[in-house]
Design brief:
It is an enzyme of class 3 (hydrolase). By secondary structure, the protein is an alpha+beta fold. The chain has helices spanning 29-37, 51-56, 63-79, 109-119, 165-173, 201-205, 209-218, 224-232; strands spanning 2-5, 22-24, 43-44, 88-98, 101-103, 123-134, 148-160, 194-198. The N and C termini lie far apart (39 Å).
């Protein structure tokens, strides 16, 4: 399952002498770890985007659309910085959907406990928005300007085990769910409460590598270019 947007025709793979520099517009250690495990070197520049303010400007957006709006806002904010010139900038954000409602980060123990109790024994959808901004300018031997952007939402169904109040209280007390979309994460302690994932598990972590591969292709970049560069060195 998933939603896709802003997919211009792919450009031909360019003849750049080296793979581009990728900037991740997120402070998420999990997203950094996913990129590292996928063999993609990157830098981190965190945006100052107010997630709640962005979402409030689009009250009629679906949970999937909200995830993409937030990812786009983060990517564009970082792409506008002088330090991003000549790079690719990736913004990501995740939103959990339960009963058609978008659930972002709870931030407080009270909200986290309430949400986890509502999710116990039920299923929802985790939407992760990806937005890639190309700041490289004009590529050599390529007629298409690379000042462009593409975006896509990857979605995965998530089924939770039944959690008793003591388990929920213990999980919230760890602090882990307070800054996670939907009040849980699959790659940490919260994984103990997930019984099934329908879709790309990386989506639930917060960055779908297969989705990123597709977005890079639209910018004329192969994910494997970084692998080849690492072997050459």
């Amino acid at each position: 399952m998933g939603a896709v947007t802003v997919h211009p025709a792919p450009v031909a793979h360019s003849s750049w002498p080296h793979p581009p520099t990728l900037i991740l517009a997120s402070k998420s250690p999990a997203r950094t770890r996913l990129l590292e495990e996928a063999g993609i070197p990157h830098r981190v520049l965190v945006s100052a985007v107010d997630e709640e303010a962005v979402a409030a400007k689009h009250p009629d957006a679906s949970p999937a659309e909200t995830a993409l709006l937030l990812a786009r806002a983060k990517a564009e904010a970082v792409a506008a910085l002088p330090a991003a010139a000549g790079t690719l900038v990736l913004g990501c954000d995740s939103v959990f959907e339960l009963d058609g409602q978008a659930l972002g980060k709870p931030y407080t123990p009270e909200v986290a406990r309430e949400r986890l109790a509502a999710m116990s024994g039920r299923s929802g959808i985790l939407h992760t928005g990806h937005w890639l901004v190309d700041r490289r300018g004009l590529a050599p031997q390529t007629p298409h300007p690379h000042e462009a952007a593409v975006g896509e939402v990857a979605s995965a169904g998530v089924e939770f085990t039944t959690m008793d109040p003591q388990e929920i209280a213990a999980y919230v007390a760890t602090g882990e769910p307070l800054h996670c979309a939907g009040s849980f994460t699959i790659d940490g302690l919260g994984g103990a409460f997930l019984s099934r994932v329908d879709g790309d598990p990386h989506t639930v972590v917060g960055l779908s590598i297969s989705t990123l591969r597709a977005l890079l292709a639209h910018a004329g970049v192969r994910l494997t270019d970084w692998w080849a560069a690492a072997v050459d060195h």
